[in-house]
Design a protein that fits this description.
The strands form two sheets. Strands 2, 4, 5, 6, 9, 10 and 11 form a seven-stranded mixed beta sheet that branches. This protein has a four-stranded antiparallel beta sheet with strand order 1-3-8-7, with no helix packed on it. It is built from no helices and eleven strands. With about 120 residues, the chain is mainly β. The termini are far apart.
Length: about 120
């Protein structure tokens, strides 16, 4: 089991950047694949980016490639998501999560079972 707490969200102008952090409790963080997800009101939660336990593999959606960077520091039990060139459509609540199931497409929501409370990212023009 792991507890996750996101931080770093806020209100920014289009074109600006944010760095989201996810702090994990316990000694088991390094054993989990991790991901960042977003959810808008009335919409299903969807993946933004994901990273394997040692950082060897990373996943980005087409809209995130070239703008977003996922990383982790296992020694600090921390996951990051660097959000650059933010646009209005990036506005959402962003959640970090730990993978607990091993179905195909490792980055997809159903594989993740431990979730943080979310951090709000709001982009204005």
């Amino acid at each position: 089991q792991v507890q996750l707490v996101e931080s770093g969200g806020g209100l920014v102008q289009a074109g600006d950047s944010l760095r989201l952090s996810c702090a994990a409790s316990g000694r088991t963080f390094s054993s989990y694949d991790m991901g960042w997800f977003r959810q808008a009101p009335g919409k299903e939660r969807e993946v933004v980016s994901a990273i394997t336990s040692r950082g060897a593999r990373k996943y980005y959606t087409d809209s995130g490639k070239g703008r977003f960077t996922i990383s982790r520091e296992n020694s600090k039990n921390t996951l990051y998501l660097q959000l650059n060139s933010l646009q209005l459509e990036d506005t959402d609540v962003y959640y970090c999560a730990a993978r607990v199931r091993y179905g195909k497409r490792w980055y997809e929501v159903p594989n993740y079972g431990y979730w943080g409370q979310g951090t709000q990212v709001t982009v204005s023009s």
